[in-house]
Amino acid sequence: MAKNNINTVINRASATSSAQSTNNYMQYPCYRNKQGHGWAAEDANAMADRLSGKRVDQVGRDNSLNGADRISNGIEIQTKYCASPSKTIGAAFSDGSYRYGKMKLEVPKEQYDECVRLMADKIRSGEVPGVSDPAMAKDIVVRGNCTYDQAVNIAKAGTLDSVKFDLKTQSVSCSITCGFSFALGYANALRSGKSHAEALKCASTQMVKSGATSLAVGVGTQQLLRTTVGRSIAATATHSARTIIDATCKTQVGQQVVERQPLLLLVRRLWDKQLRMYWLRECVPTWLLAAL
Description:
Largest sheet: 5 strands, mixed
Mean pLDDT: 81
Oligomer: single chain
Radius of gyration: 23 Å
Structural class: alpha/beta
C-alpha cells in the first residue's frame, strides 16, 4: 500500500473518530448561551467519571423537564452550577420543593460544603420530600469535579481550562488513531520487505506522528467550534451539505454512499431521516472544520 494511501486512510479514520469524540462528549452548540457554563460543567464532570472508569450515559441531552443530566454507574445526577451556593441550591427547588426526587445534586467543587449546609436547612424546613434527616444532605449533594470558574472557562475558546478539557475528550480518538496507525504501518512495512525490528520502528514513528496530528486537529477543531466564526462555518457547512445529501439520497447508489459511513461508525442505525440528520449534524461540521 502506497504511503500516501496509508496516510489518507489514517487521516480519514482520525477525522471520523475526532468527530465522534466532539459530538459524544461536548454539547458545544449550547456553550454560546448565557448558561453555557452549565452545559460545560455537565460535559466536564461526565468526562471525569468516564476517565475514572465509570459507565456514563448523558441522558440530559433530551432536555426532559426535571430529568437527570447523566446516569453514572446507575446513579442519576442533576448538575447545577451557579455563581453562589445559595443560587446553586435555589435552582434545584421550585415552589418550595426539591425538583429532582431521589437524584443526586452535583454542585461546583468549591461550593460543596456550603451547599451541603444549605441543603440541610432545606430538609429541616420540609422542602425535600421523603427526607427528614438533615444529615442526609451529604448523600444528596455531590461535589463536582470542576469549580464554577473552571466551567465558565471550559465554555470559552482559548482558555487553559478549555484546552485541558479538549485534550481529555480527544485522547479517546487519539488512542484509536494511534492503534490503527501502528497496525497499518507495521503490516505495510512487513509487506514491503522490512524486518520485524524495522517494521516496529516504522510503525512506532508513524503512530506518534498520527497521534500528535489527531490530537492537535481535534483540539483545534473543538476550540474553533466555541467561537462565532467556527459555529458559523459549521452551520453553513451543514446547510449546504443537507441540500447535497437530500439530493443524493434520492438515488439507490447515493443512499449506499451516505449510509456506509454512519454504519461503519455505529453498526446499528437504519437508513431513514434520522440517519441523514445524524450524518449532517455530527460528521459534516467537524470534518470540514478539521480540514481547514
